[in-house]
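Hey, resending since the last one bounced:
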Amino acid sequence: MVKVFLGLGTNEGEREELLKAAMREIDAQCGRLVAVSGVYETAAWGVTDQPDFLNMVVEIETGLSAEELLEAIQSIEHSLDRVRTTRWGQRTIDIDVLFYGDEVIATDLLEVPHPRIPERRFVLVPLAEIAAGFVHPVAGKTVAKLLRECTDNLEVRKFA
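The structure tokens again:
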């Protein structure tokens, strides 16, 4: 079994329900949920002229290979009406593989650790909530240290 961290985000439709549905499907198709962060609301990152996002991070234990996991995640996104149109655009659900154990993967389909973790406060805040001591296998720094060093000024608010 491999410890995996997934980032979840949504800014379209019934955001809370979409996060819950995604977690149910992740637990059913990808691996056992081990830890779940709180939900945080942030302005959009990248393409900013769109509704605010709800973001969270989950930890799972999986027996799937990284490629099998990606395929399962994309199937879940599709089942929750994810349509890929604009990069960093509005979406019903986005599920990113942040870490796959301590592996470093670089293929045409998948890059792990996710390359933008250190520059995204909306990922680091919920990730630090459940895995502050996890060491980024490329940066060699804990998630807590990456969060302290993050230069992203985007406000990340706990969602009630």
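The helical segments are 15-29, 66-79, 121-131, 143-149.

Sorry for the duplicate.
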